[in-house]
């Protein structure tokens, strides 16, 4: 079976080396978490995959498309991105419906007339992300959680959505809003037409049961990649974060303890 996408020996250099050597393969039916400390290369990897950061060497393949040999503007229409960087570019008077509609052509902000077919699709997406009641509300009046759902709706409007990258989507959410958002992702993942989800975070507490695999990054390199059970161990995460940590599992969720009290947790 061909992978959804694959990264081989990816390297990105600017004034300094941003990504040294990243190898990663994602197959159909998997949902991934990219986990690493600040500065490990998580967001840079997403930027490279979505065509906003040019690789210096290595290969990126998404479906049949290969970076450098395919029109990445077209590929980008099948890859949804939810990031606070996008939110900062949205005009405050844009409504939630406008933001969702802008995703059809992977643009920022929406102006003009709406074809009937796109209007119907946008209505379905608004229902899917549970914000129909917010359709006419301006961006400036949406809460952080409502903005995240709106941005997911924007990503789902893409013509051929295959993947949805979530770049620290819980940042700025209070604990209750965070749990509500993670429950929403679980519902989204169960849809038979759901895209492959990739969550970028440095908090293991945000790893919901819907995720199946983890990519560990450190210093711009792939440290390890595999199933949740293989990756989320105290030893691996201590190496990932460069400090002694202990992982505790309660039910289907994880917690992390850092520093001198880490040893009081059962090591897994």
Write structural notes for this entry.
This protein has 268 residues and is an alpha/beta fold. 29% of the residues lie in helices and 27% in strands. The protein contains nine helices and twelve strands. The strands form three sheets. A six-stranded mixed β-sheet has the order 6-7-8-3-9-10, with helices on both faces. A four-stranded antiparallel β-sheet has the order 2-1-4-5, covered by helices on one side. Strand 4 (57-62) and strand 5 form a beta hairpin. The two termini are 32 Å apart.
In short:
This protein has 268 residues and is of the alpha/beta class. The chain has helices at 42-49, 72-75, 84-87, 96-102, 116-128, 144-156, 175-190, 228-231, 234-241, and strands at residues 5-13, 17-26, 32-35, 57-62, 65-66, 79-83, 163-167, 196-201, 213-218, 221-227, 245-250, 253-258.
Number of strands: 12
Q: How many DSSP H or I helices?
A: 9
Using the alpha-carbon principal axes, give the shape: globular
Into which percent range does the helicity of residues fall?
A: 25-40%
Distance between the termini: 32 Å
Q: What profile does the largest beta sheet have?
A: 6 strands, mixed
- Work out the strand percent: 25-35%
| Low-pLDDT runs | 263-268
N-to-C order of helices and strands: EEEHEEHEHHHHEHEEEHHEE
Query: Could you tell me the mean pLDDT?
Result: 86
| Widest beta sheet: strand line-up | 6-7-8-3-9-10
Radius of gyration: 19 Å
Helix vs. strand class = alpha/beta
